[in-house]
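Problem: given the chain below (424 residues), write out its structure.
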Amino acid sequence: MNINSQQGYDSTCTCDSASGSVCMKYTCSTTVRSVSCFSGSSLLTLPDGSHKSLADIQIGERVLVNHHHTYEPISSFIHAKHDGIFSFLAIQVQSTKSNRTSTIHISPNHLIFDYDSGKAKFAGKLHVGDRLQFVDHDEIVPATIMNIKLTKQEGYYAPLTASGKIVIDGIVASNYATVSNHDLAHEVMEVYRWWTNLFGGSKSNEDIPWMLQVMLKIEEIFALVILFHRILLTLPDGSHKSLADIQIGERVLVNHHHTYEPISSFIHAKHDGIFSFLAIQVQSTKSNRTSTIHISPNHLIFDYDSGKAKFAGKLHVGDRLQFVDHDEIVPATIMNIKLTKQEGYYAPLTASGKIVIDGIVASNYATVSNHDLAHEVMGVYRWWTNLFGGSKSNEDIPWMLQTMLIIEQIIRWCGGEQLIESYI
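Solution.
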């Protein structure tokens, strides 16, 4: 059951022991409720140059959204909550033009505009020294981040404007959060914007619109077919190199007995963006060495006891994975599994269809449940990359794997589960 408090926290309780219909023992955990917006004390600039807090602003009031005296009305609030205490990042900046300072209170997964790249980034990915877009005397100038700290404020508000931008405490920010691409979010929210223009906006909806929820789910689905973040491959000289830095053609460890193969291509890869991974920590039963692999839940990884590849999301603490320890494959016991977010994703391709990631033997493949079947089908793609060269810039998975996934789903719907699992 979920217990929703008024102070910005969510508690989840599980019944551990029951007598009839009565629960005798509970286990409860409490986490801070995630918000995606600005604090109620955040200041907006009005056409007369005065300021008004988000808590006091009303739908229809015109506010500064950019430089050159660009003001737009607040058409609605994507979501808002007037009471309750919530966590925000307090990001303090200093203008490089006038040395003016300002502090914005923003959720870590809200988008804010970087000055140097011109792109919107998650506030939680910013660092001291980064530069944000800042309106100083009607001009956008760089403002250097001087300090970032976690703070608690009352209320949260996510205002919506026609341009999808808004100036909060002098800093240019996006209307959007959670979804990593500002332009894409703005396009999708056009329908919601049209709806609010037609029927009026609201400042009382605590939940984000279903359109943004759908977009978030789509991003999560794409994240599930991703392999690894910036984790380490072993080179022939015994040194290590991250997937972000590895190049096509470099030879990497794919099994024990010093078996090295070149990276022929990347099934798909994306260098920027924030994605979800499982952080699976293992400990070798031979040397007690520990290692952690960051992998998507539906990527295949090799179980030690069965010798088969399994979806990472199906593993449990206590299961044993194949681990290369002093040139020998030994069992490594899973000690911990947790969800984490990291930047970038990479799915390398080798001749054997296997690769050693942070000492753990993993498959090249995801989404399709049978490693051997995926390896057979991907032989055509491997031949193609050997003939014409591989790529590290293709964000979408090959059509062959997409087709395989569809075929596998059809077979499962028709009751062919055993056929898929027994394929060799």
